[in-house]
Specification:
By secondary structure, this protein is of the alpha/beta class. The protein is 46% helix and 15% strand. The relative contact order is 0.16. Bound molecules: S-adenosylmethionine.
């Protein structure tokens, strides 16, 4: 409780934290969303990757094992709960396969996804990562843990990390991308309907018909269903450890 109060009154965090509290009162559609996800789930992560390039899926397995072991070892040295990682296997596969240049992710936390994205960029020899996050305000000095797993990668690959929260970070990322477009977008931050919708709205001018867009935890609310149904987008839903993620543009 003490950490929460200290963080709430840090000058840059107050409005984001207030908004996060208010978002808790948004309509709860998680039951409908989960039922919709279950009835539309097509494949597992593995079968999805194999349907695109099965030999590549086998080839990247040793890289992922190495990254996983390294990350677990690093995490075991700190005594803090930083939340589980997003779907780093899928991200690593897609980046090695499609070699996107501009990659944007929301939600960094310990940095599982940032780590694999930066490693894949390094392996490809091209690419930039733009990440948005907001500190876990239940922790003491939470800023120090953001991207903890990926900190050493920063010297080797271009990585812009903005920890002011999506509302401030995403417009800044749009500026930085300038005239280019986003090739891959991974959303894993504010799980509310409005958070997801605002992020899409802010970044929409940087998407093109080939942009791969991935939303984690689409069973939280009906945002992904509404998003794909609005323009009749082709989509795929994958199940991973009892959770669901949605992809368009693959
Ligand atoms: C599920 S974790 C991300 C996990 C990460 N992708 C990984 O693989 O390790 C969600 C993160 O989003 C952050 N977050 C929550 N609300 C946010 C917001 N409004 N803007 C930016 N980040 C936010 C949380 O503080 C947390 O760090």
């Amino acid at each position: 409780m003490k950490n929460i109060l200290i963080n709430i009154f840090k000058k840059n965090y107050f409005f984001t934290i207030l908004k996060k509290i208010l978002k808790r009162f948004e309509k709860n559609t998680s039951i409908e969303a989960k039922n919709w996800a279950i009835s539309n789930v097509n494949q597992t992560i593995e079968s999805f990757c194999r349907s695109i390039d099965s030999p590549l899926y086998d080839k990247i397995k040793p890289d992922l094992k190495l990254i996983e072991n390294e990350a677990k070892e690093k995490l075991s040295k700190i005594n803090v709960r930083l939340g589980g990682g997003g779907n780093y296997i899928l991200l690593y596969f897609l980046i090695i396969k499609f070699k996107p240049v501009n990659i944007v992710e929301t939600g960094v936390a310990a940095g599982w996804t940032s780590l694999v994205i930066l490693r894949a960029i390094k392996k490809n020899g091209q690419g930039n990562l733009y990440s948005s996050d907001f500190p876990y305000f239940r922790l003491k000095n939470p800023e120090q843990y953001i991207g903890y797993l990926a900190k050493n990668e920063k010297n080797k690959v271009d990585w812009y990390l903005d920890i002011r929260g999506d509302d401030l970070a995403l417009p800044e990322i749009v500026n930085k991308i300038n005239n280019d477009s986003i090739d891959l977008f991974h959303y894993d931050s504010d799980k509310s309907y409005s958070g997801r919708a605002n992020a899409l709205k802010t970044l929409s001018s940087k998407f093109n018909s080939k942009t791969i867009i991935i939303f984690d935890d689409i069973d939280n609310n009906l945002h992904f269903k509404d998003f794909v149904e609005k323009d009749k987008k082709k989509f795929c839903i994958l199940e991973y450890k009892g959770k669901f993620l949605g992809i368009v543009g693959y």
